[in-house]
């Protein structure tokens, strides 16, 4: 057996040195390794003699008391965390709901003609921007399409009056009129619906 | 893991404080011995044992009974002891901390009633690097097998054996004069 390898093995065995037959045979033949082995046994003795540290009764009691206190604190912390998480969750849901509703109101419901308005009788246009949207969407060439029966051109002020008249006559049904970009079909619809004789 | 220990672990997982207290009672001395041998002073060892059991309480549901409960506790205590020694070493580099007297005290060696050789042995163990000291203590004093230590430290068995050999070599050198 190789001396170096045997010494490595012996070091690993410190604390529970039990020799195999081949190791014994080598130690019997090799004085250097035998000396090394004796040295390890000499080292092992004082290390083994060191007493095992143990807790005193007072320390054991103190450990239990402190553990109790810390575990209770941990549990209370857990409950606080749960409450905090629940509170934050509720807040987050509320904020999301508010954001969702505001977006819904802004984008999902188009500006429509609705009932009511300070100083107005009957049905009026909901906002100035709604009127502007209609007027802005009609270019001058389309005014010709909206010409009256006696071929007089219709300008934007006439058109506004026509819308107003239509709204007052049709009432809430006019709310279905989608404002903004006006398609050709919508222009045709307006042309059919508006009683131009009231205006022109 | 004994059947009793297994049952206690199951009960403790179900938030049974009595079962957990019983596990503390069964293992506190082993953990204290390890942390005391690692730190060299009672107060730090006591604090580390306390932290070990508190961590065990918090994490008991993550304990899979693949190893024994005490092996799991050894793992927690070992990590805490190593971190403690690293912090202590780090603090020793800070001049103010040195002025405050944070030098290692080797209380363990001072408190021994035995002969000079026993004190020298204790001081020699204390002077080992943390990882070698840990392996040495787990093997020599706690009498754990190398595979068990490898499992506890999450290291390869050959690495653990090398650490042990190096620790023994250093102890041989430190104790040369007493032979």
Supply database-style keywords.
heterodimer; A: 200 residues; mainly alpha; two-stranded antiparallel ribbon; 2 strands; B: mainly alpha; 10 helices; 0% strand
Structural account:
- The complex is a heterodimer of chains A (200) and B (179).
- With 200 residues, chain A is mainly alpha-helical.
- Chain A contains eight helices and two strands.
- Chain A has helices at 3-12, 21-29, 31-49, 57-108, 128-137, 140-145, 156-170, 184-193, and strands at 114-115, 123-124.
- In chain A, strands 1-2 form a two-stranded antiparallel ribbon.
- In chain A, a hairpin with a 7-residue loop joins strand 1 and strand 2 (123-124).
- In chain A, helix 1 runs parallel beside helix 3 and helix 2 (21-29) crosses helix 3.
- The longest helix of chain A is centred in the middle third of the chain and has 52 residues, at 57-108.
- The termini of chain A are far apart.
- Chain B is mainly alpha-helical and 179 residues long.
- Helix content of chain B is 75%, strand content 0%.
- Chain B has ten helices and no strands.
- Chain B is globular and about 55 Å long.
- The model of chain B is unreliable at 99-105 (pLDDT under 50).
- Classes of the chains: A mainly alpha (200), B mainly alpha (179).
């Amino acid at each position: 057996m190789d001396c170096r390898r045997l010494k490595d093995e012996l070091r690993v065995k410190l604390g529970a040195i039990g020799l195999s037959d081949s190791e014994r045979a080598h130690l019997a033949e090799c004085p250097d390794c035998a000396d090394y082995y004796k040295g390890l046994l000499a080292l092992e003795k004082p290390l083994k003699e060191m007493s095992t540290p143990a807790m005193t009764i007072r320390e054991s009691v103190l450990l239990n008391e402190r553990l109790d206190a810390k575990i209770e604190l941990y549990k209370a912390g857990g409950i606080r965390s749960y409450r905090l998480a629940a509170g934050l969750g509720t807040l987050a849901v509320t904020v999301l709901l508010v954001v969702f509703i505001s977006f819904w109101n802004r984008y999902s419901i188009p500006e429509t003609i609705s009932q009511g308005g300070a100083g107005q009788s009957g049905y009026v246009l909901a906002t100035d921007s709604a009127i502007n949207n209609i007027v802005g969407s009609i270019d001058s060439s389309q005014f010709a399409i909206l010409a009256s029966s006696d071929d007089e051109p219709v300008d934007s002020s006439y058109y506004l009056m026509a819308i107003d008249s239509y709204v007052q006559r049709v009432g809430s049904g006019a709310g279905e009129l989608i404002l903004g970009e006006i398609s050709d079909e919508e222009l045709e619809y307006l042309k059919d619906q508006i009683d131009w004789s009231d205006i022109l | 893991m004994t059947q009793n220990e297994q049952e206690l672990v199951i009960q403790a997982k179900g938030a049974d404080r009595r079962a957990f207290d019983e596990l503390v009672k069964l293992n506190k001395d082993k953990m204290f011995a390890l942390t005391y041998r690692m730190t060299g002073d009672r107060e730090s060892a006591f604090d580390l044992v306390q932290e070990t059991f508190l961590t065990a309480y918090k994490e008991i549901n993550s304990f899979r009974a693949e190893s024994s409960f005490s092996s799991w506790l050894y793992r927690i205590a070992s990590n805490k002891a190593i971190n403690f020694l690293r912090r202590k070493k780090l603090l020793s580099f800070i001049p103010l901390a040195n002025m405050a007297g944070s030098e290692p005290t080797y209380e363990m060696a001072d408190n021994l009633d035995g002969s000079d050789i026993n004190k020298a042995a204790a001081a020699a163990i204390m002077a080992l690097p943390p990882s070698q000291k840990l392996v040495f203590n787990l093997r020599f004093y706690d009498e754990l097998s190398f595979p068990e230590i490898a499992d506890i430290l999450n290291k390869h068995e050959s690495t653990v054996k090398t650490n042990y050999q190096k620790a023994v070599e250093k102890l041989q050198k430190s104790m040369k004069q007493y032979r």
